[in-house]
Amino acid sequence: xxxxxxxPLGLMFLVTGGLMALYGLFTxxxxxxxxxxDVNINLIWGGLMLVFGLVMYIMGRRPRRLVASRVExxxxxxx
Length: 79
What we know:
This protein is mainly alpha-helical. The chain has helices spanning 6-26, 41-72.
């Protein structure tokens, strides 16, 4: 089976991180960040979640091509 948990996990983090980052962008300079010493936590964590989700999604898509080439025998031998 070609099930890989990294693909839906990556998509979930991409969507959640994107929403958080957009919210952080639209609320820059707002009074809600006074409690966090004027640090836009939504923008920072949204960006980190976006990067993590992108890495997970890419890593989830990558092994399919490598495994298929190994099964077919088209992999080049190491020198």
